[in-house]
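Hey,

The postdoc asked me to send both predictions to you directly instead of through the lab channel. I've kept everything plain text so nothing gets mangled by the mail client. Protein one:
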Amino acid sequence: MKVSHRIKSAVVSLLIASVVAGTTQTVTAAPQTEGPRTEAVVKSLYAAYNINGPAVTIGGVPFQAGTTPGFTAGPNAECVGNPTILPATTAEMNEMLRCFTWGDDQAPGFIRVAGVPSGVYEVSLWSWEDSTASYFDVTIEGTVYTIHTTLPNQWTLLGPFRVQVVDGTLNVSTLGAAGNLAGIRIDRLIETADPGTTPQTRFEPVTPTRIFDTRPTSRVNYLGAKPPTDSTTTVQITGQGGVPATGVVAVAVNVTATEAAGVGFVTAFPAGAGRPLTSTLNTQVAGDTVPNMAIVALGAGGAISLYTNSSTHLVVDVAGYFTNSIASSAGRYFPIDPLRVLDTRPTSLIGYAGAKPTIGSIVNVPIRGRGGVPPNAGAVAITLTGTEADGAGFVTAFPSGIAIPTVS
């Protein structure tokens, strides 16, 4: 993904919130049945290991010994006698935390679990820092997670991280400062079908496209004056900006209020439906420009409605749409724990090296394989923040390898 700047200069942060599976997703849905269904995910314990210690039961969960056949970890193993472990925990947990394996830049740490059936899993790791605070990366099945460990003597639970195993071995590695790993839990996730309920939708991303604009100098699919106070404007979605004419149940749009008359709000909702008592975005002062991303179900004629509480111009950019599809697991939506993958501020750099992005610049942001996003993801839901801007302008996020779209 690329982020293009048309502001004088700004610092950018990118927060991933969820993932849409790509077309190569290998998690298969349950066999198709006659009639609609949805899918649920069942989580069950596959295995847990006390990485450098004997078998132990903690909180009712049986942790196997680190010497169990098929399980290996290294390269360095260590036990600390009578340590201070914070926050205070059970005696069984203390015993597991005080014995660990670790690696560093010269000899990366690793965990390998053989004989794991192909499928989707959640992996949780227990880490305890015995000496100094550390900063290291954990890679699980090709996905990199940047970990900030706690202060000396502090333990923490990392994850759970959703991963996919395809070759019969679960691989975990660490790189950076010495990361102590004491325990690992592996839960298997299994999709089950639930016949007779509403079908699960599938997301199809499109190149961001402006499909509606009420401003007289840049009108798109609109004729008339600036939407007045207490008015509702209909926006046709299907057949616009790469959205098919049929088979669409909802749309992902960026709605912008601009040149607002003053304090007010805009509400997006299905055309022909009753207006909900909520707002999609809020304006604060005269002249305000406020954007917000929204997922809106389509109403009559494949359209949505925009209610303006106070007079404002309206702009709508489409980013993707949802269809009722049970033929493929591609396009399924997977929420993940929000994680920052880009920060260009010098005091909190993440995934970036260099000066503050300047006007007209493009920042490439690797997404697949980071922050819990699988290597075959087809799209991602993000929170994109521009901060410390030098002046008025905009930021556009778009897929790498295409021309910059005329949206913001």
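Protein two:
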Amino acid sequence: MKRLRIVAAIVAALLTVYAVVGIAGLMKGFDLIGAMLVALAATLAWLGWWFVIRGWRTVQARLKWALLGGIVVGGLGFLLGFFGPLLWAPDANQGPLLGIFITGPIGFIVGAVAGALLGKSPRERDVTTLTK
């Protein structure tokens, strides 16, 4: 588990550098696709640092919910953004790019944050049921 935390720290550090450099670049001129990629990198860096700092046992349930929420909502966003333009405007050849660069990453970010905030470990669920 220690090696996994070291690898996660390296990946999170690289994603953090990418996000910081990307934010600096966005301050010079806004680019929607660049903003989506920076937000996605920042979310993944946040999840990585969360795992590195707190360890697996303390964040296991919330991290699972965050990843599950990100994958499910991001997947739905990707599918809607990829196939939606194909149905509404079949002659537009750049329609699927909406799902790849915009709705997929936005869905992952929203799902990951919602999963992290709403997901609770079994211990936290037991405490909340006892206090009611």
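Summary for protein two, as requested: Helices lie at 2-28, 32-54, 56-88, 97-118, 122-131.

Thanks,
C.
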